[in-house]
Amino acid sequence: MSTDTLHRIDTVADDLIGVEVSCTHCTLPVPAGLVDRTRDQQFCCSGCATAFAILHEHGLDRYYEFAQKRAAPVLASARRYEEFDHPAFAARYVVTSAHGIARTELYLEGVHCASCVWLVERVPLIVSGVVRAELDIRRSRAVVEWDAAAVSLSAVAATLASLGYPPHPFRGVARDAMRTREDRAMLMRIGIAGAIAINVMLAALALYSGELNGMDGSLTRFFRWISFGLIIPAFVWPGRVFFTGAWASVRTRALHMDLPIAIALAAGLIRGAINTVADSGPIYFDGLALLIFALLVGRFLQQRGQRMAADAAELLHAIAPVRARVVDAQGVHEIPADALLPGMVLDVRAGESFAADGVVIEGSSSVNAALLTGESRPVSVGTMARVFAGTHNIEAPLRVLVEQAGETSRIAKLMQQVAESAGRRAPVVQMANRMAGIFVAVVLTTAAITWLVKWRMQSAHALDDAIALLIVTCPCALALATPLAITVAVGRAAGRGILIKGGDALELLATPATLVLDKTGTITEGTTELVSWVGDARLKSVVLALEAGSSHPLADGFRRAFSEHAEGALRHVLHDVKHVAGCGMEATVDGSSVRIGSPRFVGYSANGSAVPIVPALHDAIGSMDRTLTPVFVSIDGQIVAAASLGDRVRADAAASLKTLRAAGWKTIMLSGDAQEVVDAVGASLGFAAGDAIGAASPEEKLAFVERAKLRGRVVMVGDGVNDAAAIAAAHVGIGVHGGAEACLSAADVYLTRPGLDGLVELTSGAHNTLRVIRRNIGFSIGYNMIGATLAMLGVLNPLIAAVLMPTSSLTVILGSWYGRSFSRARVRSAS
Amino acid sequence: MSVLYIVVPLAMLIVGGAVFAFVWSAKSGQMDDLETPAVRMLHDDTE
Question: Do B43 and A117 touch (CB under 8 A)?
Answer without folding.
Answer: yes
